[in-house]
Amino acid sequence: MPKPLFIALLLVLPIILAVATQSGWVLILTVALLLIANPIIRTIRKARYFRSEQFQDLKQEIASVVKEHNEVVNYVAEIRSEGAFELGASSTGQFAHLATFENTSAWNNRRDRNVAEYAPHVHNASLQIVRNASQDPIKYLMKYFGIKADQTTLMDVQRVANDIARLEEAVGNVRSREAAITAKIAPPAFIMEHYAGEFWNQIGAHLSPIQVPYPLYKFQYTSAGGNTSQELKVDLNTPTLEALSEILVEKIRWAKSAAGQRALMTARLRSYIKERDHFTCQQCGISTAEAPYLLLEIDHIMPVSRGGLSTPENLQTLCWRCNRSKGAKVIA
Ligand SMILES: [Zn+2]
């Protein structure tokens, strides 16, 4: 039953009954009955909804949409497992994986405060460095995580940026497919509120729990006594990676290296290529005009690994299926 109605009933009905029968027990009993009945009624309504002809018909109707949704979910998992999401490491955490750090003193209630984190993405620094890093995060990131201004590093940064952008788009694509499925079936609100998981099971869609794994870098200061600590987090998302790429290019150019002339892959260039190609796969010809939820990707015609540049002439739009089979061929 709808929530406002239930609450009104919960407040009014017991009082009316209690007044009518002049008994406090009736009041308590009615409240208890209503509280017990509500979830039972909800379960019955849910079962009836999933059995209904209307739901089964819609489910049949969108079966092919769901199938494609599941394929894209698998593709997301592929990108996630093959992608590069690592960049630079702090010297303070370089050998941390060799040690197991454990504080065994059970009486020490401050132990979680004075144990510094030793991980490749955490730099343990003085308070001054943590403060300065917040003013100029990219400069400090490069300095303390050993991100050098050279051609190899730039290619690394671009590779990570590319994998993150691909994953962002693919995850976004899955989310909009899910939204489209929900809009088409339009389940009652209580279904999505209480039985969303069961809804997707019934539909036959497996959901992607995958988040975009933005590398997270931390500058961390912990005082010797463990009473104070301060942290600065730098998330390597698309804007940060693009800013980092630009700074690297500047520095490489400044070093008068011819290699610094390399073109950069940016979010802007990516959407420019899609527009230029009219949102159409350059291999199989499918376009967003015929398939609104088509996942399009940007492909280097001559792969980066063979010296291909991120210039418009070397870039083309491919649908995810064609890009995936091209990738398989390059590896083979
Ligand atoms: Zn294609």
Unique ligands: zinc ion
Structural class: mainly alpha
**Overall pLDDT level:** 81
How much is the radius of gyration in Å?
Answer: 28 Å
Estimated helix fraction: 55-70%
Question: Uncertain segments of ≥5 residues (pLDDT<50)?
Answer: 93-115
- Strand order, largest beta sheet: 1-2-3
- So how many helices? 13
The largest β sheet comes out as: 3 strands, mixed
Specify the overall morphology.
Answer: flat
User: Could you tell me the number of beta strands?
Assistant: 5
Count of spatially separate domains: 3
| N to C succession of SSEs | HHHHHEHHHHHEEHHEEH
In angstroms, what separates the terminal alpha carbons?
59 Å
The proportion of strand residues reads 5-15%
List the keywords.
332 residues; mainly alpha; 3-stranded mixed sheet; 3 domains; DNA Binding (I), subunit A; two-stranded antiparallel sheet; 13 helices; binds zinc ion
How would you describe what is shown here?
This protein is mostly helical. The chain folds into 3 domains: 51 residues; 182 residues, no CATH class; 70 residues, DNA Binding (I), subunit A. Helices cover 56% and strands 8% of the residues. It is built from 13 helices and 5 strands. A hairpin with a 6-residue loop joins strand 2 and strand 3. It is flat, with a radius of gyration of 28 Å. Bound molecules: zinc ion (ZN). Zinc ion binds next to strand 5 and helix 13.
